[in-house]
Specification:
Elements lengths: L5 H4 L6 E2 L2 H4 L7 E2 L3 H8 L9 H5 L6 H9 L3 H9 L5 H7 L3 H5 L11 H14 L15 E5 L3 H12 L3 E5 L8 H4 L9 H12 L3 E3 L10 H7 L2 E4 L5 E2 L12 E3 H12 L4 H4 L11 E5 L3 H13 L3 E6 L10 H4 L11 H4 L3 E4 L1 E9 L2 E13 L2 E4 L5 E4 L2 E4 L3 E3 L5 H5 L23 E3 L2 H4 L4 H20 L7
Length: 478
């Protein structure tokens, strides 16, 4: 598997980025791919571990050592086949996944994990370049119909698997384009949308039908789906944002991160401003921006604000600053809590931790600042530090504090399915079935806010569960 001494002979060498001053001029992807010889050399570092922990680190259980070895041998076509056997959309995960597989790599014990994510991305990109990725329509149709509600990564994965099993699948999407979080929640500089579009062409050729601008529970009822489809898959995501409950939060300069990101993605797609920003243009140009929330969505707001020409960008987080380096003896092969600096952070931002917001300051109805106080954490409890109050200058405040679960109005109210204690749709991973035997649930709507790679896993597994429920048996992989 790989080159037996590869990890001893070669250090980790990953993809690089274009210079920040250049990439800030546009919304294009800026990762600089490696040459084929460099990729094959990196693939040779795979150690042929007795227990490949990367399998468990990867939510879709990618067969990583196998395709590393095939890349090392230059057998890209078979590497692509192995990669696709567990992951419908590796061009998405190869760009935006945080790579828990690399954290689980045995070589990460010495901070030299195999560049799994870059190799994955290179395999699928080469597959598209060479025309190896084509539609896989089923040999026969089952006559069964499935409605998939929500077109994010979970819905797309479920729909593609079900269509390949021979079912007639229709995706219902409330937005004007297919893709969900991939389309409107992730900036183009991380994931260009032509990558989604070409998958949609493939899926359409496999028999998937798309109904956009159709919100189930509003423009079409759940009862109508029950009557016209044999099964329903709820894959609508966790879209209820966590709010900011402090004085002044109602000011117009306090906005949701997803609204900001969606507007810019719509502009990049060529939409006119009235369509891109129906509630009014939201732009960071020339403004002092404060982003509340230290996760990926907050980072995306940082990158987008800098591209729009913000006067300054500050990102704050209520939790304490993570350590620069994890204790491998305690964490490996699990995903470690440590400081992560994204490419957007490298483009320019002031970051601060253990900050509690107290009040949004304003004048004449406009945001002027954000009153904060420093906090200390002990025993899982937070305590304000006396005398540490300060005010951040702000014209625009973005809320990127995560999501509390799926929206209940419309779809879930009409579906009437049971919810778990966290407000997500209750369904276990054995069969993904809800309290209504005709309805299944997967992705963030079932598990809560999570990663794209987890959504793909759940979409694939839910598709098998639906296929088995409809046919009595399923040949789809789990």
């Amino acid at each position: 598997m790989g080159k037996e001494t590869g990890f001893l002979e070669l250090d980790r060498l990953d993809r690089t980025y274009a210079d920040p001053q250049e990439r800030l001029k546009n919304y294009k992807e800026f990762v600089v791919p490696q040459s084929e010889p460099a990729l094959r050399a990196q693939a040779s570092r795979c150690m042929n571990c007795g227990i490949p922990y990367c399998h468990n680190g990867c939510p879709v259980n990618n067969i990583i050592p196998d395709w590393n070895h095939l890349v090392y041998e230059g057998d890209w076509l078979n590497a692509l086949e192995v990669l696709h056997s567990t992951n419908n959309f590796p061009e998405f995960t190869g760009r935006i996944c945080p790579a828990p597989c690399e954290a689980s790599c045995t070589l990460n014990i010495v901070d030299q994990p195999v560049t799994i994510k870059s190799i994955e991305c290179a395999i699928v990109d080469k597959g598209w370049e060479n025309g190896w990725i084509v539609a896989q329509p089923p040999e026969k149709r089952t006559g069964k119909t499935v409605a998939v509600v929500g077109s994010g990564p979970a819905g797309m994965a479920a729909a593609q698997q079900l269509a390949r099993a021979g079912h007639s699948v229709t995706i219902f999407e409330k937005s004007d384009r297919i893709g969900g979080l991939l389309r409107y929640g992730i900036p183009d500089f991380k994931l260009e949308k032509h990558l989604i579009n070409r998958r949609l062409v493939q899926m359409e050729a496999e028999g998937v039908q798309f109904r956009t601008s159709t919100e189930v529970g509003v423009t079409i009822s759940v009862s109508s789906l029950r009557e016209n489809f044999d099964a329903i898959v709820l894959s609508g995501g966790a879209e209820q944002p966590r709010g900011l409950e402090i004085p002044g939060a109602e000011l117009p300069g306090v906005r949701l991160a997803m609204e900001f990101l969606t507007q810019q993605n719509k502009r990049n797609a060529g939409d006119e401003e009235v369509r891109a920003a129906p509630r009014g243009t939201l732009t960071a140009t020339g403004k002092h921006v404060v982003v509340i929330g230290g996760g990926d969505t907050g980072s995306d707001c940082v990158g987008t604000s800098n591209r729009q020409g913000a006067a300054s960008v500050t990102q704050i987080e209520i939790m304490p600053k993570p350590p620069e380096k994890e204790d491998k003896a305690l964490t490996w092969p699990d995903w470690p809590m440590k400081l992560r600096t994204s490419s957007s952070h490298e483009e320019g931002v002031d970051r601060d931790w253990a900050i509690l917001t107290k009040r949004v300051a304003g004048s004449d109805g406009q945001v002027t600042g954000l009153d904060c106080v420093r906090v200390e954490w002990a025993g899982g409890k937070m305590q304000e530090v006396p005398g540490s109050e300060f005010t951040l200058k702000a014209d625009l405040i973005f809320l990127a504090m995560g999501f509390t679960g799926p929206r209940k109005q419309g779809l879930l109210d009409q579906a009437g399915v049971d919810l778990d204690a966290r407000g997500n749709v209750a369904a276990n991973v054995a069969d993904y079935r809800t309290s209504d035997p005709q309805i299944f649930a997967c992705g963030d709507m079932r598990r809560g806010q999570s990663l794209v790679v987890w959504a793909i896993r759940e979409g694939r597994q839910a598709a098998r569960a639906v296929d088995e429920a409809l046919m009595g048996v399923s040949e789809l992989p789990r």
